[in-house]
Amino acid sequence: MQFIDLAAQQERIRERIEANIAAVLDHGKYIMGPEIQSLEEKLARYVGVKRAISCASGTDALLIAMMAYDIGPGDAVFTTPFTFIATGEVISLLGATPVFVDIDPQTFNIDPSKLELAIQAIRENEETGLPLPRSVKPLVPRGIIAVDLFGLPADYDNLNAVAGRHGLFVLEDAAQSFGAEYKGKKACNLAQIGGTSFFPAKPLGCYGDGGMCFTDDDDLYEIMMSLRVHGKGTHKYDNVRIGMNGRMDTLQAAVLLAKFEIFPEEIEVRQKVARKYSQLLNQYADVQTPAVEDEMLSAWAQYSVLAKDETHRTELQDKLKDAGIPTAIYYPKPLHLQTAFKSLGYEEGDFPVSEDSSGRIFSLPMHPYLSDADQETIVKVLSGK
Question: In terms of Cα–Cα distance, which of 151, 106, 173, 145 is closest to 297?
């Protein structure tokens, strides 16, 4: 059994993938070939925004967006500690300071009420008892990176309201949520800029690294287009700002164009798989299943459950492993306890919900090609029945 079955997907559309790759080999435009613009236009229409900027990875999507906001030393950017390191990493790479905020225990996404308290504490530069990063100089609150963890959009109504009250931008980290919906709007269209990843294991993945930014803001679009190609101005040797080499390869765009043809159907099938998991697990297994609020649609990048505690999780994972069923833990250590962020001075106990989730969570096989029989086997092993 596969955790994510890319082979089954490839078998279904291999002919189209090979035809698209052959077309690139024939025209020879491996960098910024016509497939790039075609992909950007198709995905922008799907998301419901005016502009899309392809790039080399999901991390680059976040980095380009942050550079467009001119984030740098002395700036505070607020985000969740319960995420992949790239979210916090791009903040530190630009010399800014990540300010971590604990998560909602049901959605695993950043808690807007705790966020507002953290913003106020940084702005007032006073001792409040809240866990805040160590800093020699006062920090200036600039923005929020909201993560749509496991494919479920964060609480953007409240997040955007908090940001508006404090004059901050919101960047949607939709690395796992492309295809999801929030109150009738697609993920990547829930903040001023949305960034996603096309890493192979993502709901829409290429055969390497890839990413994309989405926006309706023409000024930000022009800046991000420039940043993607070494700060390009009117031509390749006119560099108007410090940028990066963040382009997507044409071959990856060709693969994504083939996969996108079946993507909406795959998102529908993911809903069916998730519903069956929840139905079976709630009936037979002693784990907490994920919650999706009304007016939301998860992309189900992962189907993650909570065990009673870390010992219970290990027992369940061992049972599944013995039965040949793969699992994964996203994420075993929250960012505030990672060595990379040690200089911020956070300690164990600072973000109890994130730490509790890290000790109990694990993910089951999840993809559109998972059979009913395989799901029933997984739940049978978990329940011991």
Answer: 151
